[in-house]
Design a protein that fits this description.
Distance between the termini: 35 Å
Oligomer: single chain
Bound molecules: 5,6-dihydroxy-NADP, zinc ion
Number of strands: 8
Largest sheet: 6 strands, parallel
Radius of gyration: 20 Å
Length: 385
């Protein structure tokens, strides 16, 4: 197990009616910047519920709407501008990962003299941030209890993750009922994303039994509940289990003590940077191709455990078991969850950018548990094509 330091200061209010805790924001100041996306929160009633409580708490609410999936730096800049001109005290993000990530960088940008893009390119420049609160509406990214944010500048085909302790949300409201309205496509993509976070950690571990067995439990939770939520969007227990599993996949509980360098995420971020695809779909497409690429004598024991402990497979032939585990994952993503099965199916119709995308992704993958070179990544893209 690698060394680590851990502190997760987020207060989680979980369950039906958890939004009633919103007036606690009044302890942090007067002026709130409410940030949300393309309008789903107005259709499903969360906006009205939140506004009524904010009004009751006598908070002054300013709004930034229209945060895009794969949030843009241009939107972050608009938010920073409002914070600075209005003297905003805190951020309230209502939405999925994109809205919350955007709010995190706005919160840091509000305390920074220069352009917020500097904070995306260089996390060491993030020294302080306004307090961040959120109401999560989509189970996927785990941003509700982690220090990270992923922001794009699609005019330059750039999408980068950044992070700092001051960007961990102060309080997150997790009401599984608020995810009932999530579409089948986003439910499937979200399940793939949380599984990817868990698997990135799972395949970066050495002698970390505690994290390993927790990761297996999280994966089994996701594999059990993802299909139930897909079929029955209003199934409370399925939505609740997905929500809490997603939070733990990336809050450090499972990842601390593992190699910090992930592989599939840097590769997927390039797909989104160039083609603006849905994050979870890109991960689902790349993960089996990546697994087949890194399966070796060294990693075989990990894949055997994956097949046995996650998928419940049995057999005496380790190589056959390892392949069967990867096949089970493919079947789950592409048949059970209905996720597009290759890059062509998400609109990537030629390989002209594979080289440049691989070059950029390889900056992060060189230090992974199974390191990937630019050439490895091109092969993975081709296998996923
Ligand atoms: O914009 P609105 O109208 O809210 O609609 C959204 C959006 O169209 C919709 N949606 C969200 N909640 C809903 C809902 N629709 C109906 N009912 C609800 N309750 O879903 C669509 C996708 O939303 P988005 O926020 O983009 O999805 P997600 O939560 O998957 O976030 C993806 C972003 O997070 C980043 C990704 O790269 C991507 O940019 N990630 C952030 C991480 C982090 N901060 O730790 C880690 C992840 O690995 C990931 O990279
Ligand atoms: Zn992810």
């Amino acid at each position: 197990m690698y060394n680590f330091s851990m502190q997760i200061p987020t207060r989680i209010h979980f369950g039906k009616g958890a939004v009633s805790h919103l007036p606690e924001l009044a302890n942090y100041g007067k002026k709130v910047l409410l940030v949300y996306g393309g309008g789903s929160i107005k259709k499903n009633g969360i906006y009205d519920a939140a506004m009524a409580l904010l009004k009751e708490a006598e908070l002054e609410v300013h709004e930034l709407s229209g945060v895009e999936p794969n949030p843009r730096i241009q939107t972050v800049r608009r938010g920073v501008e409002i914070c600075k001109s209005e003297g905003i005290d805190m951020l309230l993000a209502i939405g999925g990962g994109s809205t919350i990530d955007c709010s995190k960088v706005i919160a840091a940008g509000a305390k920074y003299e220069g352009d917020a893009w500097d904070l995306v390119l260089d996390a060491s420049k993030i020294r302080e941030a306004l307090p961040i609160f959120d109401i999560l509406t989509l189970s996927a990214t785990g941003t509700e209890m982690d220090p990270y944010a992923v922001i794009s500048d699609l005019t330059k085909n750039e999408k980068w993750g950044t992070g700092a302790p001051c960007m961990i949300p102060t309080m997150s409201i997790l009401d599984p009922e608020y995810t009932y309205s999530v579409s089948k496509k986003q439910t499937a993509a979200g399940t793939a994303d949380m599984m990817s976070h868990t698997m990135e950690n799972y395949f970066s571990m050495e002698n970390a039994d505690c994290q390993k067995f927790m990761a297996e439990g999280l994966l089994r939770t996701m594999i059990k509940n993802g299909p139930v939520a897909l079929e029955n969007p209003d199934n409370y227990d399925a939505r609740a289990n997905l929500m809490w599993a997603a939070t733990h996949a990336i809050n450090g509980i499972v990842g601390d003590g593992c190699s910090p360098a992930w592989c599939v995420h840097p590769m997927e971020h390039e797909l989104s940077a160039f083609y603006d695809i849905t994050h979870g779909e890109g991960l689902a497409i790349l993960t089996p191709a990546w697994m087949e690429h890194i399966l070796s004598e060294k990693t075989l024991p990990h894949f055997v455990e994956f097949a046995k402990n996650v998928w419940g497979l049995t057999g005496d032939d380790d190589w056959a078991l390892a392949h069967a585990g990867i096949d089970a994952l493919k079947k789950f993503f592409f048949e059970t969850m209905g996720i597009p099965a290759n890059l062509r199916a998400v609109g990537i119709t030629d390989d002209k950018n594979f080289d440049i995308m691989a070059q950029k992704a390889s900056k992060a993958t060189g230090h992974a548990y199974v390191a990937l070179t630019k050439e490895d990544i091109v092969e993975i893209f081709k296998a996923a094509f």
